[in-house]
Design a protein that fits this description.
With 107 residues, the protein is mainly α. The chain contains four helices and no strands.
Length: 107
Amino acid sequence: MHERHDAYKAHTMSDASRERVALLMEEAAEVIVICGKILRHGWDSHNPLDTHPETNRELLAREVADFNFALELMDKAEELHPGDVAGALVDARANKRQWLHFQGDVL
């Protein structure tokens, strides 16, 4: 039983780290929600009930910025390193390209 406790201890997170991961997760979910609205209603659609409506394009920009802020916090806390992300991006460019059918004009 003592070994299990030590192994658990090695995987515990500080409250600050847990908060950063939760923020990243929440922001990722919000990006997904806006993407769904864009697919259903279009880029420049907006909620007609809003008194100060933002287009889905504007909402996506804001949510991506919020997501990037969460990444920035993780970088500053040395939980997620920009070099690791940059390396993974190089791999993604090489690996995802084969599965994209309509991106010839932006690749």
